[in-house]
Amino acid sequence: MTDPLLDRLAQAAPADLDDDQLAALLTGARRRVDAERDGGPAPRARRLRPRTRVALVAAAAAVLTAVPVVVSVVGQDDGTGPSGLSVAVAQNGQFICSNGFATAVDPARADVRLLPDQLPTGWEYTQILVRHERSQNCDVPSLVALQLDPSGVVTGRLAVTGPVDAYINTPVVDRDSVPDTVFGQPARRFDLAPDPARSIDHELHRWVWSDDTGRQWSAEVVGFGLDEARRQLTGVTVDGPAVTWQAVDPGWSLIHLRTGPPYDLPTGGTSWMVSASGGLEGRGYDVYANPEPHLPAAAGAWVDDRLIEVAGHPAVISPVRGSEADGGPPGSAGFLTLAVDVEPGALAISRFSPGDLDAVEAMLGSLRQVAPDDPRIATYGEK
User: Fold this and answer.
1) So where does this one cross the membrane (predicted)?
2) Average pLDDT rounded to a whole number, residues 325-351
3) Cα–Cα distance for residue pair 42/29, rounded to 1 Å
4) Closest to 298 in 3D by CA, of 289, 284, 309
5) CA distance to 9, 146, 353, per residue, from 284 (Å)
6) Which end of the chain is more exposed for a tag (fewer CB within 10 A), N or C?
């Protein structure tokens, strides 16, 4: 007997997966859907997202965990899939795309063709892959503020997203949240305690509510207990579709604020993905080039990340994660994630071993737009 869900997933899977990868994707998605229906664990908290290649595969499992009734996941945007994209509320109150599509682009024809002056020593090009993704910005926040210590390390995060039209899986949301009130509106509150198994390093509180027009909003405060999180939210004003903010305490910086109409979500963007051999598994870098709105790298910073500059560009560096001390493989030194605003609307992200920090900073700081006939595109580009 065939599994109809697996059949539908197979039709929507990314075209560049081999048979083993596709089988693993489908099996994992099936397992996570079943686990969700049986009351499985909530998705992990959001942090810097370094690998689009991984995200394209993981999106199926993540989406199906959040909203089991949605089975149109990452596939080829060839006109055969659903024409619309939708936003859903996950088990942890986060807005996510409930489906998405990725269209292969010839690297020589891509608008983004960013290659470095030099790769880190020991790295060798293996592939240049380009995808146009139609769900890249589905959770773009309208407001992001960060509390920073004197060295630029993030010690608190506040963000507001909305208004959007989101699907709410009410039984799942009600199971994992408690009733509350925020900005004068009935809301559901999600309280996440630190949990290394779910990549939650700091206390997180998130509220989801519907405004008077029936559209959904989300507000999150990271790094504080509930009472203090509520106090920080008193600096936010939501008036119709508009949102404003005034710092409650010193040490906070406004990173991003929407001043125009609500964002048209979800949207799309182009991912320029360069893979290399040598060093950490998954080595290389991705460049995300989005249409408006253009958000800085700092808008995705989490508590313990640090705001820096790389070759004069604003950037965010994560702390070391995934070491043996953090539950990683024996002997693992962990990895860093570096995100750099390489040019307006283009964000480069790489994950790498701590010892490669200087070389990766030099690599991302030297990214240049190259000609369509660059020999590296001709040799390593995947059409």
Assistant:
1) 54-75
2) 87
3) 14
4) 309
5) 28, 28, 11
6) N
Arithmetic mean of pLDDT over the chain: 81
Is the pLDDT at 305 greater than 80, yes or no?
yes
Cis peptide before 14 (omega within 30 of 0): no
65 pLDDT band, cuts 50/70/90, is very low
What is the tens place of the pLDDT at every residue in 39-55?
433 444 445 544 333 33
Instruction: Give the pLDDT band (50/70/90) at residue 58.
Output: very low
Two tokens, residue 288: 């995300």
Distance, CA of 138 to CA of 290 (rounded, Å): 12
pLDDT of the residue at 319? 93
Return d(Cα 184, Cα 243) in angstroms, integer: 14
What's the pLDDT at 250? 96
Crossing angle, helix 19-37 and helix 4-12, to 10 degrees?
Answer: 130
Report the distance separating Cα 179 and Cα 169, nearest Å: 15
Rounded to whole angstroms, the Cα distance separating 152 from 314 reads 12
Average confidence (pLDDT) over 48-64: 36
Question: Does the pLDDT value for residue 181 go beyond 50?
Answer: yes
Handedness of CA 304, 309, 310, 313 (dihedral sign): positive
29: left (phi over 0), alpha (psi -120 to 50) or beta: alpha
As given in the structure block, the two tokens for residue 179 are 């009733």
Pair 370, 378: CB distance under 8 Å = no
Task: Give the integer Cα–Cα distance in Å for 222 and 6.
Answer: 37
Q: How many CB atoms lie within 10 A of CB 10?
A: 15
Residue 230: CA count within 13 A, CB half-sphere: 9
DSSP for 166-216 reads EEE-HHHHHHH-EEEEETTEEEEEEEE--BGGGTB-S-EEEEEEE-TTS-E
